[in-house]
Amino acid sequence: MKTIDAIVEGGKASAGPPLAPALAPMGVNIGQVVAKINEATKAFAGMKVPVKVHVDPKTKQFTIEVGSPPTAEIIKKEAGIEKGAGTREAPAGDLSMEKAVSIAKAKTNSLGKDAKETLKEVLGSCVSMGVTVNGRNAKEAIKEVNEGKHDSLLKG
Fold it and tell me: For residue 150, which of 109, 72, 70, 96 has the smallest C-alpha distance?
């Protein structure tokens, strides 16, 4: 088995780079691979998604493994912004605490030991991106999470 790692835009992979140059020497049908990737990633439209294509060069059979998009990509989509890094005076966007919790629960590649730690990772990304949470600085939201103010959302 050989594995090709790529990052594609959800639902919009193409038969060009980075996939075609890596897949062509293995003799697989690139069109079929691209179609499967697009089908598997259509829910992540507009986001960059990590994808692994596992190919058996002997049989030309392949499987697709879709990873979780980077936290920043999900935050941008949920906040309705194109990029982060707003200033404190003019935030890049705003995210509700409920959305932050749902992002945390959906993360499969988190380093957090539990939902609370993963939520703090998401909120930390909001801090870095200049995204406010419920109209306030995300650092305040992290303090509230540490104090247990949003534990009921995490359990739901």
Answer: 96
Query: Where do the DSSP E strands lie in the chain?
Result: 2-9, 48-56, 61-66, 93-95, 131-133
Q: Residues 91-100: pLDDT tens digits?
A: 888 898 999 8
Number of domains in the chain: 2
Distance CA(145)–CA(156), nearest Å, equals 15
pLDDT tens across 51-75, in order?
A: 999 999 899 999 999 988 888 888 8
Per-residue pLDDT tens for 38-53? Answer: 999 988 887 888 999 9
CATH of the domain at 135: 1.10.10.250
Residue numbers of the domain that contains 61: 2-66
CATH of the domain at 41: 3.30.1550.10
